[in-house]
């Protein structure tokens, strides 16, 4: 997967929305529930002691962030997890880590190359 | 021998902490930060050119550099507020793509003896949003390098 970004565009917006959406414990619990399979708003609301209306609001936030989608199946409108969107959030963290891992591995190489680190010997003597 | 990078990016705070150890004496690790010719070899993204316009790693010095990549140039600049040889560096850091989101970067060079060094750092952004944007700019470079480099990385680690 190679994503070529020319700047902070749609991608960063969706990441912002994604993390903002996950900043709430109720919404994280909803995501956890949906990771086991799609569910209706009523099913999602069941374990929570908050109103159906509040749950609907949380689902809207998750929907807006692209983390979940709603399909129409007869009278039911089950909520589905969007694994791609979650993966993007993970990639966001991993990408930062990857950049730094690579940087420090290069620094290892610079430090390991005898000609590249003459001060090493000076220091030892 | 595995010198893994420890990153701590807590939610809701404007800083990032990292710790990394090196199989090299503290003077060598410090020198790799001080000498722009060495910096060029490791600070830029893999396989791309890093142009350094200025790099004066002394108290009151300044730096400016550009990573030239297939998907654009990324410029960075800042000043070295305090540099203590083989011990400590405090600098500012600004990505041209996010003007005024200046971060303060602290680095501690710790002598572990036996020719080993621990590098400890904290980067503090202006705001949580600014920090997140900074992390994200890292992602853009990192992700663009793709799985090809990730594979190389994994192969190296094995």
Structural summary, described in words:
The complex is a heterodimer of chains A (125) and B (158). In chain A, helix 1 (10-21) packs across helix 5. Chain A has helices at residues 10-21, 25-34, 41-45, 52-64, 83-112, 119-124; strands at residues 68-70, 79-81. Helix content of chain A is 61%, strand content 5%. A two-stranded antiparallel sheet of chain A has the order 1-2. Chain A has a single domain, classed as Arc Repressor Mutant, subunit A, CATH 1.10.10.10. In chain A, 23% of the residues are buried. Chain A is mainly alpha-helical and 125 residues long. In chain A, strand 1 (68-70) and strand 2 form a beta hairpin. Chain A starts with 9 loop residues before the first helix and ends with a helix. Mean pLDDT of chain A is 77; it is low at 1-9 and 115-125. Chain B has one domain (6-157): Alpha-D-Glucose-1,6-Bisphosphate, Chain A, domain 4. Chain B contains 3 helices and 8 strands, in the order E-E-H-H-E-E-E-E-E-E-H. Chain B is globular and about 40 Å long. At the A-B interface, helix 1, helix 5 and helix 6 of A face strand 2, helix 1, helix 2 and helix 3 of B.
């Amino acid at each position: 997967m190679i994503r070529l970004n020319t700047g902070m565009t749609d991608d960063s917006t969706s990441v912002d929305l994604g993390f903002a959406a996950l900043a709430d414990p109720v919404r994280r619990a909803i995501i956890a529930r949906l990771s086991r399979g799609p569910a209706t708003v009523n099913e999602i609301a069941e374990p929570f002691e908050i109103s159906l209306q509040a749950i609907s609001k949380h689902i809207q936030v998750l929907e807006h962030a692209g983390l979940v989608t709603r399909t129409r199946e007869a009278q039911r409108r089950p909520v589905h997890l969007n694994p791609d969107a979650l993966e993007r959030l993970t990639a966001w963290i991993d990408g930062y880590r990857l950049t730094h891992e690579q940087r420090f591995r290069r620094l290892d190489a610079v430090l390991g190359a005898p000609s590249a680190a003459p001060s090493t010997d000076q220091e030892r003597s | 021998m595995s010198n893994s990078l420890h990153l701590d990016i807590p939610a809701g705070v404007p800083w990032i902490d990292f710790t990394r150890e090196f199989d090299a004496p503290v003077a060598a690790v410090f020198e790799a930060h001080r000498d722009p010719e060495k910096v060029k070899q490791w600070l830029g993204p893999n396989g791309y050119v890093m142009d350094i316009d200025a790099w004066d790693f002394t108290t009151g010095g300044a730096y400016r550099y550009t990573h030239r990549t297939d998907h654009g140039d990324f410029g960075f600049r800042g000043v070295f507020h305090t540099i203590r040889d083989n011990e400590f560096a405090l600098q500012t850091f600004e990505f041209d793509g996010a003007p005024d989101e200046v971060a303060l970067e602290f680095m501690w060079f710790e002598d572990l003896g036996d020719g080993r060094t621990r590098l400890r750092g904290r980067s503090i952004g202006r705001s949580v949003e600014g920090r997140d944007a900074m992390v994200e700019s890292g992602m853009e470079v990192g992700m663009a390098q793709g799985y090809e480099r990730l594979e190389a990385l994994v192969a190296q680690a094995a």
